[in-house]
UniProtKB/TrEMBL annotation, chains A, B:
Name of this chain's protein: Transcriptional regulator
Pfam families: HTH_34 (PF13601)
Coiled-coil portions: none
Winged helix DNA-binding domain: residues covered: 12-90
PANTHER family in the record: BSL7504 PROTEIN
Amino acid sequence: MEFDKLVHQPTRLQLFAHLYANGETSFSALTDDLEITEGNLASHIGKMEEADCVAVNKQFVDGSPQTTYRLTEHGEDLFEAHVQTLEELIDGLDS
Amino acid sequence: MEFDKLVHQPTRLQLFAHLYANGETSFSALTDDLEITEGNLASHIGKMEEADCVAVNKQFVDGSPQTTYRLTEHGEDLFEAHVQTLEELIDGLDS
DNA sequence: AATGTGACTTTGTATCACAAAGTATTATGT
DNA sequence: ACATAATACTTTGTGATACAAAGTCACATT
């Protein structure tokens, strides 16, 4: 039973889950939905990028910058593995 | 979606799960099963005690000290709530 | 009394999350 | 062209945290 610290950390776990469930999502949508500060989001997303878990897309929409993020395949794989680890832990409670 | 840091931390999450599933467990069984050092176990269990999540029982068995731990009701409640939070996160992935 | 075992406690360190404030990029308005 | 505004970061500082390693303590047996 191993926990990947990158994925398990609460804020990032929610980021992974959000991106996994909702697909490509904008910076501001993430700060709004997860109720975290911009600095914090940038920091956590940065670590996910470094680990090749997240791909970034920057563009201008209606005259304003808009950055969107999505999970890479590797990010999806890591998250799925982590969810499985959690499910195993939960399933093991019945025994 | 809130994560209780006390419960979510990987080593303690496994401690909670182990005590929840197996009931009263000895110090040495915990270091063996979770593969953590004695110092580390003492430290994490200490935090769980402080939070009234764990009850301790010290005795001598066959001339050797043996400490056992079990979850308090409060500990069980906290863990169950946390598991539910995790399940909700996982269930939300389908949408 | 001396030794041994189990269960801690102490000490030190490196990492980390977070908040707050500062900065950079580009668009729009005048 | 210049100033301003909006988004998306980056920097700085701080307090908390996990962990390893080593030291200590209580009690029982010999």
